[in-house]
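G., the chain you wanted modeled:
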Amino acid sequence: MQIKRYLAEDMRQALKQVREEQGPDAVILSTRQLAEGLEVVAALDYDASLFNPAPEAQAAPSPSGQGLKAGAETAGSAAASSAAGAASESFAYRPSPQTGETAPAPGDDDSLAAMRREIKALRRMLECQLSSLAFNDFSRRSPVRADLLARLIHLGLSSPLAQDLVARVPAEERDPARAWQHALSDLCRMLPVDNKDPLAQGGVLSLVGPTGVGKTTAIARLAVRYAELHGPERVAMISADSKRPGAQECLFSCGRQLNIPVYLAADADEVHERLARLAHVPVVLVDTAGGLRDDPHAHRVSGLLRPGGRPMTRWLVLAANAQLQTLEEALMLYSNLPLSGIIATKLDETASLGGLLSVIARNDVPLTLVSDSPDLRRPLQSVSGRQLLKRAVAQLRASPPRRMDRESLAQHVGELHYALG
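Predicted structure as tokens:
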């Protein structure tokens, strides 16, 4: 057995040295953080039995008393200690004198914390290694589906959704173009899209969503559309966003440009009081304050939009240029409200629609309207799943080519759950 001590900056460098010098069959005996760096002791052809002392010799019971038994136990203990000492002298590593090695005291909190960190680092490295091995094996068995997975990730889809779409492609598929079309067709069927007009039924429409997604602009555009069809006196707007500076002034400015009345409401009671006074107006649009999970103002939206005397529909506004995690958090935050649909804004400001597609495909709330222009006079548009996918693919082709090596792709995907035969 060969035992060697390595000193490196971190665990990754230490394991790299071990693999290069002793190969993949080396066994890590110990790790320790020193002032010079991380110390790792590894062994090749490790035999655990060499470190286990031989069982003590059992003396036969003698009727003569305890003397023979005690002598046998003492001799056995001495033999075991001698064997263990010899094994230690033969196989244990000897640290350099300047390191001043001392065994950590039992129960030392710092030592336990360091050990936990090292275990977590080792676990993370093993997960990365296993992911790379699994992806490489998957690439050898099904290169078409491996290429498809890379394309779907480049499209901006979430890793679970991309893996789900890849798993739906037949394993015997050998044509990359057909596999790509198959995945896009499945994704199109997974997108809940509802082209109903939110203004058709009239009543009260409230828009909710994070700050800065374009709720005020979307309300103004809905008001413009209805006013052009039925007259400005048949529509009104209420601003319940007293948190963001300038939000109410922005809606007032839109109202003056469009000749549409705008009313203010500071809390839920004022909102319902305004709605009662506007009972003669067929359509009332309510602009609410935005926020995310850690914002205390966001949790007041539920009380603000509680059912009142008039029917109220609630629409979630999402910005297409937001990160996937932000979109998922917004849906989770407003999931307690009975949402009628999703209005996607800022399609003209995003380079990838993958995040929006991933969120819509994984939820039951349908996409109803989209906005691809900041022009107030341009109405919100309905869109089909096919049109949205066509736009996403066009953006992918227009963007600069991105290459991702297999190791990076495997780590991006993480734990692989392909369920592929």
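The first strand starts at residue 2 and ends at 8.

Shout if anything looks off.
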